[in-house]
Protein backbone atom coordinates (compact mmCIF):
# COMPACT_ATOMS: atom_id res chain seq x y z
CA UNK A 1 0.00 0.00 0.00
CA UNK A 2 2.91 2.33 0.70
CA UNK A 3 4.34 1.71 -2.70
CA UNK A 4 1.05 2.48 -4.41
CA UNK A 5 0.88 5.83 -2.61
CA UNK A 6 4.43 6.63 -3.57
CA UNK A 7 3.68 5.91 -7.20
CA UNK A 8 0.59 8.13 -7.06
CA UNK A 9 2.54 10.99 -5.46
CA UNK A 10 5.26 10.62 -8.12
CA UNK A 11 2.66 10.62 -10.87
CA UNK A 12 1.02 13.73 -9.40
CA UNK A 13 4.41 15.51 -9.16
CA UNK A 14 5.25 14.61 -12.77
CA UNK A 15 1.87 15.85 -13.91
CA UNK A 16 2.35 19.09 -11.97
CA UNK A 17 5.87 19.54 -13.43
CA UNK A 18 4.58 18.84 -16.90
CA UNK A 19 1.75 21.35 -16.37
CA UNK A 20 4.25 23.97 -15.10
CA UNK A 21 6.47 23.37 -18.15
CA UNK A 22 3.50 23.81 -20.49
CA UNK A 23 2.47 27.03 -18.74
CA UNK A 24 6.05 28.36 -18.95
CA UNK A 25 6.18 27.55 -22.70
CA UNK A 26 2.86 29.29 -23.24
CA UNK A 27 4.00 32.40 -21.28
CA UNK A 28 7.20 32.54 -23.32
CA UNK A 29 5.22 32.22 -26.54
CA UNK A 30 2.95 35.08 -25.43
CA UNK A 31 6.00 37.26 -24.70
CA UNK A 32 7.51 36.44 -28.07
CA UNK A 33 4.25 37.37 -29.77
CA UNK A 34 4.12 40.72 -27.93
CA UNK A 35 7.71 41.79 -28.85
CA UNK A 36 8.14 42.21 -32.61
CA UNK A 37 11.05 40.35 -34.11
CA UNK A 38 12.60 43.48 -35.66
CA UNK A 39 12.55 45.55 -32.44
CA UNK A 40 15.83 47.24 -31.53
CA UNK A 41 18.03 45.94 -28.82
CA UNK A 42 19.59 48.39 -26.37
CA UNK A 43 22.85 48.31 -28.37
CA UNK A 44 21.03 49.32 -31.58
CA UNK A 45 19.37 52.23 -29.77
CA UNK A 46 22.76 53.41 -28.42
CA UNK A 47 24.27 53.29 -31.92
CA UNK A 48 21.38 55.37 -33.30
CA UNK A 49 21.76 57.97 -30.52
CA UNK A 50 25.50 58.18 -31.12
CA UNK A 51 24.98 58.71 -34.85
CA UNK A 52 22.42 61.46 -34.20
CA UNK A 53 24.74 63.18 -31.71
CA UNK A 54 27.68 63.02 -34.13
CA UNK A 55 25.51 64.43 -36.93
CA UNK A 56 24.35 67.30 -34.71
CA UNK A 57 27.91 68.03 -33.57
CA UNK A 58 29.05 68.14 -37.21
CA UNK A 59 26.25 70.57 -38.10
CA UNK A 60 27.09 72.70 -35.07
CA UNK A 61 30.76 72.91 -36.11
CA UNK A 62 29.74 73.92 -39.64
CA UNK A 63 27.50 76.67 -38.29
CA UNK A 64 30.25 77.87 -35.93
CA UNK A 65 32.70 78.00 -38.86
CA UNK A 66 30.18 79.99 -40.94
CA UNK A 67 29.69 82.36 -38.00
CA UNK A 68 33.46 82.85 -37.56
CA UNK A 69 33.91 83.49 -41.30
CA UNK A 70 31.10 86.07 -41.23
CA UNK A 71 32.70 87.78 -38.23
CA UNK A 72 36.08 87.87 -40.01
CA UNK A 73 34.48 89.28 -43.18
CA UNK A 74 32.70 91.93 -41.13
CA UNK A 75 35.93 92.90 -39.33
CA UNK A 76 37.74 93.17 -42.69
CA UNK A 77 34.91 95.31 -44.06
CA UNK A 78 35.08 97.62 -41.02
CA UNK A 79 38.88 97.89 -41.32
CA UNK A 80 38.68 98.68 -45.07
CA UNK A 81 35.94 101.25 -44.44
CA UNK A 82 38.02 102.94 -41.75
CA UNK A 83 41.09 103.00 -44.02
CA UNK A 84 39.02 104.47 -46.86
CA UNK A 85 37.57 107.08 -44.51
CA UNK A 86 41.04 108.00 -43.19
CA UNK A 87 42.42 108.19 -46.73
CA UNK A 88 39.51 110.37 -47.84
CA UNK A 89 40.06 112.68 -44.87
CA UNK A 90 43.83 112.75 -45.34
CA UNK A 91 43.74 113.55 -49.05
CA UNK A 92 40.46 115.50 -49.18
CA UNK A 93 42.19 118.56 -50.67
CA UNK A 94 44.05 116.65 -53.39
CA UNK A 95 41.93 117.71 -56.38
CA UNK A 96 41.85 121.36 -55.26
CA UNK A 97 45.62 121.45 -54.78
CA UNK A 98 46.24 119.76 -58.11
CA UNK A 99 44.14 122.47 -59.77
CA UNK A 100 46.04 125.21 -57.90
CA UNK A 101 49.53 124.05 -58.95
CA UNK A 102 49.42 125.93 -62.29
CA UNK A 103 48.36 129.05 -60.33
CA UNK A 104 51.48 128.70 -58.15
CA UNK A 105 53.61 128.27 -61.29
CA UNK A 106 52.16 131.45 -62.80
CA UNK A 107 52.72 133.39 -59.57
CA UNK A 108 56.37 132.30 -59.53
CA UNK A 109 56.87 133.30 -63.17
CA UNK A 110 55.28 136.70 -62.52
CA UNK A 111 57.43 137.27 -59.43
CA UNK A 112 60.60 136.52 -61.42
CA UNK A 113 59.96 139.47 -63.72
CA UNK A 114 62.11 142.47 -62.88
CA UNK A 115 60.07 145.49 -61.81
CA UNK A 116 61.59 148.71 -63.19
CA UNK A 117 59.12 151.32 -62.05
CA UNK A 118 58.00 152.18 -58.55
CA UNK A 119 54.43 151.32 -59.46
CA UNK A 120 55.51 147.89 -60.78
CA UNK A 121 57.52 147.26 -57.59
CA UNK A 122 54.52 147.97 -55.36
CA UNK A 123 52.42 145.68 -57.56
CA UNK A 124 55.07 142.95 -57.24
CA UNK A 125 55.10 143.41 -53.44
CA UNK A 126 51.34 142.89 -53.32
CA UNK A 127 51.57 139.80 -55.55
CA UNK A 128 54.35 138.40 -53.37
CA UNK A 129 52.17 138.80 -50.27
CA UNK A 130 49.26 137.03 -51.97
CA UNK A 131 51.60 134.24 -53.14
CA UNK A 132 53.01 133.71 -49.66
CA UNK A 133 49.50 133.65 -48.10
CA UNK A 134 48.42 131.08 -50.69
CA UNK A 135 51.52 128.94 -50.04
CA UNK A 136 50.98 129.12 -46.25
CA UNK A 137 47.32 128.06 -46.61
CA UNK A 138 48.28 125.13 -48.86
CA UNK A 139 51.11 124.06 -46.53
CA UNK A 140 48.64 124.07 -43.64
CA UNK A 141 46.59 121.52 -45.63
CA UNK A 142 49.67 119.32 -46.15
CA UNK A 143 51.29 120.61 -49.35
CA UNK A 144 55.04 119.92 -49.40
CA UNK A 145 57.50 121.12 -52.01
CA UNK A 146 59.73 118.35 -53.40
CA UNK A 147 63.43 119.16 -53.11
CA UNK A 148 65.24 118.71 -56.39
CA UNK A 149 68.29 120.91 -56.98
CA UNK A 150 71.57 119.18 -56.03
CA UNK A 151 69.66 116.07 -54.90
CA UNK A 152 70.24 112.57 -56.23
CA UNK A 153 67.74 111.77 -58.98
CA UNK A 154 64.79 109.77 -57.62
CA UNK A 155 62.23 108.58 -60.20
CA UNK A 156 59.56 108.53 -57.48
CA UNK A 157 59.82 112.31 -57.07
CA UNK A 158 61.65 113.61 -60.14
CA UNK A 159 60.91 113.53 -63.85
CA UNK A 160 64.06 113.83 -65.97
CA UNK A 161 63.41 115.85 -69.13
CA UNK A 162 67.00 116.87 -69.90
CA UNK A 163 70.52 115.74 -69.19
CA UNK A 164 73.63 117.84 -68.70
CA UNK A 165 77.31 117.34 -68.04
CA UNK A 166 78.91 118.87 -64.96
CA UNK A 167 82.25 117.29 -64.08
CA UNK A 168 82.18 118.78 -60.59
CA UNK A 169 79.05 116.81 -59.67
CA UNK A 170 78.45 113.06 -59.52
CA UNK A 171 76.41 111.24 -62.09
CA UNK A 172 72.66 111.19 -61.35
CA UNK A 173 72.64 114.48 -59.46
CA UNK A 174 69.92 116.99 -60.37
CA UNK A 175 71.57 120.00 -62.00
CA UNK A 176 68.53 122.20 -62.43
CA UNK A 177 64.85 122.23 -61.49
CA UNK A 178 62.75 123.26 -64.48
CA UNK A 179 59.36 122.99 -62.74
CA UNK A 180 58.65 122.54 -59.04
CA UNK A 181 57.14 119.29 -57.83
CA UNK A 182 54.72 118.94 -54.92
CA UNK A 183 53.45 116.29 -52.52
CA UNK A 184 50.29 116.19 -50.48
CA UNK A 185 51.58 114.73 -47.22
CA UNK A 186 53.18 111.50 -48.53
CA UNK A 187 51.44 111.34 -51.93
CA UNK A 188 53.10 112.88 -54.99
CA UNK A 189 50.81 115.39 -56.72
CA UNK A 190 53.31 116.30 -59.40
CA UNK A 191 56.97 115.22 -59.77
CA UNK A 192 59.65 117.86 -60.25
CA UNK A 193 60.77 118.35 -63.86
CA UNK A 194 64.54 118.27 -63.72
CA UNK A 195 67.81 118.32 -65.64
CA UNK A 196 70.05 115.44 -64.53
CA UNK A 197 73.82 115.10 -64.68
CA UNK A 198 75.03 112.30 -66.93
Describe the SSE topology:
Elements: H1 2-34, H2 42-90, H3 94-111, H4 118-140, E1 143-146, E2 158-164, E3 174-179, E4 181-184, E5 187-190, E6 192-197
Parallel strand pairs: 2-6
Antiparallel strand pairs: 1-4, 3-6, 4-5
Describe this structure in words.
With 198 residues, the chain is α+β, with helices and mostly antiparallel strands. It is 62% helix and 16% strand. The protein is built from four helices and six strands; from the N terminus they run ααααββββββ. The chain has helices at residues 2-34, 42-90, 94-111, 118-140, and strands at 143-146, 158-164, 174-179, 181-184, 187-190, 192-197. It has a three-stranded antiparallel β-sheet. Helix 3 runs antiparallel to helix 4 (118-140). The protein is rod-shaped. The model is unreliable at 34-39 (pLDDT under 50).
Amino acid sequence: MNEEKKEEVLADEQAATSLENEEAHEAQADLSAEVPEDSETPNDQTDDHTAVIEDLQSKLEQEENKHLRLLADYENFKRRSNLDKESLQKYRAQSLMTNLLPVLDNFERALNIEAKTEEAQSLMTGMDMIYRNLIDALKAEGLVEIEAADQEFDPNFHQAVMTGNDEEKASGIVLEELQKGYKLKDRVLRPSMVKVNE
